[in-house]
Amino acid sequence: MQDKRFKIAHKEALIGVVLVIINFSIWYGFAYGLGSGNPLQYKYVLGFPAWFFYSCIAGTVFMIICIWLAMKLFFKDISLEEEDKHQ
Amino acid sequence: MIHWQVIVPLFIFLIVIFGIGIWSNKQVRTSTSFMQEYFLGGREMGGFLLAMTMMATYGSASSFIGGPGVAYNTGLGWVLLAMAQLPAGYFVLMVLGKKFAIVSRRIEAITLIDFLKKRYNSHTIVILSAISIIIFLFASMTAQWVGGARLIESLTGLSYTNALLIFAVAVLAYVIIGGFRAVALTDALQGSIMIIGTVILLIATVIAGGGVENIMQGLVAENPNLVSPFGATGNLTPLYVSTFWILIGLGVIGLPQIAVRAMSYKDSKSLHRAISIGTIGIGTIMFGMHLIGVFARPVMPGIEVGDKVMPLLTLEVLPPLLAGIVLAAPMAAIMSTVNALLILVSSTVVKDIYLNYINPKASDTQIKNRSFWVTTIIGITVVIFAVKPPELLIMLNLFAFGGLESAFLWSVVFGLYWKKANKYGAISSMIVGIVLYIVIYSFAENIYGMHSVTIPIFASLFTFVVVSLIANKVKKIEDYHF
């Protein structure tokens, strides 16, 4: 018989996969989207080349916020112990 | 040349760590379940501890010494590559997640191999896994050990052998007596030092370079490619850099020293907190240290040996006492990796080999004695090898990371989430993964412009699925499902 907690665990693992896909897209998109031109004509944000700022700095901060939100909104507080031991 | 300012903080650091070892030993002696306590810390880790031990085990000599050196010569492109490590902070814990924790409690698993043994019910898998863990991790332990001794050598001016002895005594003492609890607690201290050290050095470097804009101008003036994502010589292609996501981001699930931590935490709350803290920690260290390497270039031009960038820069831009604290960071990174590997190899020998095949009826006292002795003997053997590391060991270390990932990633993930996964699929995928990785690494490194680990990971995935499906068709398999 399927443990009910596993349904929750499966959903959470799936959230991990979705987050990684978002993470990779931001990282790849900004780095090579903005950084492929001539380095002498880069735009700068706060002293950093724009591709680097968005891909490595803003992207990382964004991911940390997403992860924190996922913890608050989607991750459930369930018991990890064997049920019979608890009752 | 002896840097006293470096030695004093380092010395204080060692005393605190000894204290933790002695305190943990008390827990080990009073625990009702020795094995669970000594090899898993009694599954009592809270969120902060779990985050720190994951981060500290994962961050090693290469994050603090080797990585910044490469970034110094390559530019911002290498920082981009290093950021592929961010998922190591959340992806591993989310994917193994609660299911791994629930299952390992149910089957009372102490090691990763316990889990595989129960799931696939196969001696071949146990032996194959135990051998690859012992060989690969013994080799990487030796390499980290050599790195630790070299670092002490360069900071204190002691001879290599003396430096090695100091390092060995420091690590062995607390790991042998305190077990996993001592490892995790010292990891919390070491992890904090790693983060604080990174932040201090980054700020000091930016100030020494006259601000970010000034540093960027200096880099562009020398070689505009240093600020591009493609690296100083333009050799970092998007494909090559992207495949690092497999090696240092996603594949990390397959590293036994990381996976075992995902069965050692206390409750759901610990997991949630660890995911948030761990991601911030790994992000800070990987971003900070590699960016420091790039920034060091205009601040201290002309350093020829990459590994010397971080220590030299620290001594240049920081006042003595702060330099001592920052230089304790790479030491902490090395120690926290070595201690995790030592306790893991020891658990493999005691739990997976001794208790499975040599003496299944061992009494509690016997297990206790064997565990202390095995840890001691492995530790001393590593030290002896580290005095003059043999060629073969150096080579095995290069295979370790990718080899273990190719071997374990799919067996663990499919074992948890795919009902049709069976031992035939697991065994064949392990063999295909390891062999293919060693062959590609040795004869066709970075084939088709991808990191060597890419093809073995996909090939072992394919093998796993196809063989499992065929085996299911051919005969009825009675596996244990979760």
Topology:
The complex is a heterodimer of chains A (87) and B (482).
Chain A: H1 4-35, E1 44-45, E2 48-49, H2 50-73, H3 83-86
Antiparallel strand pairs in A: 1-2
Chain B: H1 4-30, H2 34-40, H3 47-58, H4 61-74, H5 76-82, H6 87-106, H7 112-120, H8 123-156, H9 160-208, H10 212-222, H11 238-250, H12 256-259, H13 268-299, H14 309-317, H15 320-358, H16 364-387, H17 391-417, H18 423-443, H19 454-474
Q: Please, could you describe this protein's structure?
A:
The complex is a heterodimer of chains A (87) and B (482). In chain A, strands 1-2 form a two-stranded antiparallel ribbon. Chain A has helices at 4-35, 50-73, 83-86, and strands at 44-45, 48-49. Chain A has 3 helices and 2 strands. Chain A has one domain. By secondary structure, chain A is mainly alpha-helical. Chain B has 482 residues and is mainly α. Chain B has a single domain, classed as Up-down Bundle (Sodium/glucose cotransporter). Chain B has 19 helices and no strands. Chain B has helices at 4-30, 34-40, 47-58, 61-74, 76-82, 87-106, 112-120, 123-156, 160-208, 212-222, 238-250, 256-259, 268-299, 309-317, 320-358, 364-387, 391-417, 423-443, 454-474. Classes of the chains: A mainly alpha (87), B mainly alpha (482). The interface between A and B is large, with 50 and 49 residues.
